[in-house]
Amino acid sequence: MSPSPGRYGIWRHATGLTPELAAHIEALGFGAVWIGGSPPADLELAESLLDATSSLVVATGIVNMWSAPADEVAPSYHRVAGRHPDRFLLGVGVGHPEATSDYTRPYATVVEYLDRLDDAGVPVDGRALAALGPKVLDLSRERSAGAHPYLTTPEHTRIARERLGPGKLVAPEHKVVLDTDPEAARALSRPRVQTPYLGLRNYTTNLKRLGWTDADIADGGSDALIDALVAHGTPEQVAARLDEHLAAGADHVCAQVITAGMKDPEDDLRRLAQALGIA
C-alpha cells in the first residue's frame, strides 16, 4: 500500500531538517515531510526523521538517479520501509542535465533505474517520480505511485492530474513566503528561484510549456513569474494559493517555506498550519 501523506506537507532541504523539526511538523498537523537536496542512497536521514515521529510520512524529494545507484538505494529502502511500514515514500528523479557530465538518454536512464528497483523488490506503490513533462508524467503513472512535480503552478497540477488519471498521487511542491509586502517577498523569493532553477533546462522548458516566455524567465524572473511560483502574503492568502493545487487535482501539496536570513521556520510553519486549518 502506498503511504498516505495527507493534504499538506512540508518540503525542506536535507541540510535544514532534523528529527526535532520533523516532530514539530508532525505536531502541527502536516501529513508529510519531503527531504530535498538529493539525499544519499543510505536514506539515513529519512530513517532518523521516521524514528522521531509516529505518523508522519517521510518522502525523498528526490533521490538523484545519477548520484544514488538503484542497487544501493533498494536495500536502504527495504531497511527503512521495513522499520516504518506505510510511512516512507521513495521519490526518485533524473535530476538536471547541467548537474552531471554523464547526462545522456535521460528517459532511458529513468526506465533502467525503475527496472533495477523492480528487480530488487522495491514496490511500485512505494516510490514516486519527479515529473514535469508529458513522457515522465506518463511513466510516473505506469511505473510508480505517482508524480512529485517541483517548481510548478496549479495550472501544471491540472495537466498532471489529467495525464495520471484517478488513483495516482499528484504531490506538487510550492514555495511560500509569509510576508504581506510584495516587494520584500519578491526580494526574498527571486534568488531562490533564479539560482539554480531558471538556469536549468528542464524547469525552463516546463515553464515555457505553461506559457511563460523567455522575457519572463530572463533577469531573475518577471514579477508575474515569481508571484506564480512563490505564494506570498498573509498565512490565509498563502493557504488559499496552496489549495488551488488541490482544486486542480492534487492529492497533496508540500510547501517550501522560505525565511529571511535562514531564520528558524518554526513560527512560519505554525502560522501556516493554523491558516490551513490543521493545527
TrEMBL record:
Domain of life: Bacteria
InterPro entries from the UniProt entry: Bact_Lucif_Oxidored, Lucif-like_OxRdatse_MSMEG_4141, Luciferase-like_sf
UniProt cross-references to Gene3D superfamilies, sorted A to Z: Luciferase-like domain (3.20.20.30)
One GO CC annotation: cytosol
MF terms in GO: oxidoreductase activity, acting on paired donors, with incorporation or reduction of molecular oxygen
Protein name as annotated: Probable F420-dependent oxidoreductase, MSMEG_4141 family
